[in-house]
Design brief:
Distance between the termini: 17 Å
Strand content: 15-25%
Strand order of the largest sheet: 2-1-3-4-5
Radius of gyration: 14 Å
CATH class: Alpha Beta
Length: 133
Amino acid sequence: MPDRSKYTSVLLIDDDIDDRMIFGEVLKELAPDINYHEAINGEDALTKLGRDFTPDLIFLDLNMPRINGKQFLAEIRQIDHLKHIPVIIYTTSSHDSDKKETRQLGASYFLTKPNSLHELTHTLSRILQQQLF
């Protein structure tokens, strides 16, 4: 069973509505007590984070309009009250260059989007149990 005491709120930043819906459904099934929030890109997320909202964990897509994932990550690592938040890259990319660059920008973990609901459920469960990073 996931440790819900550490994570009370999660933010997913992803421009794909289907990915947000599936992620949200799996997260709610695994941990119904976690407050789940969404943003459609980095700009939207920065606006939401500017309203006294600080999630315990951020899942971040890389390829988005306006402010992409790398730009967002670089930005929040410069903001005192946000720079401590673990950020998990959640993207279709599996390129080593993306993994290296996001690690240098301060990402906690790099997760290529799973191909199945089962795989997503398993991976999110492990993350919530703090077994991946």
